[in-house]
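haha ok so turns out i had the wrong file open the whole time. this is the CORRECT one, sorry everyone. sequence first:
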Amino acid sequence: MPIIRVEMFKGRNREQKRALTRALTDAFVATCGGKPEAVTIVLADVQKEDWAVAGELMADKYPD
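then structure:
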């Protein structure tokens, strides 16, 4: 059973997450085969202050 894990900044609404999971499932099945019911997706919302790139917090780089 494939598991797709997506980590993204907090702030997407339920409809956006619903659309994302549909698109990821469809893309996986179209590309790799299998059945949609076998695809598991885990969405993890991350605060900008808990994410850094090249030593810089994303909260500092992209303030709200």
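The CA atoms of residues 5 and 52 lie 18 Å apart.
again sry for the mixup
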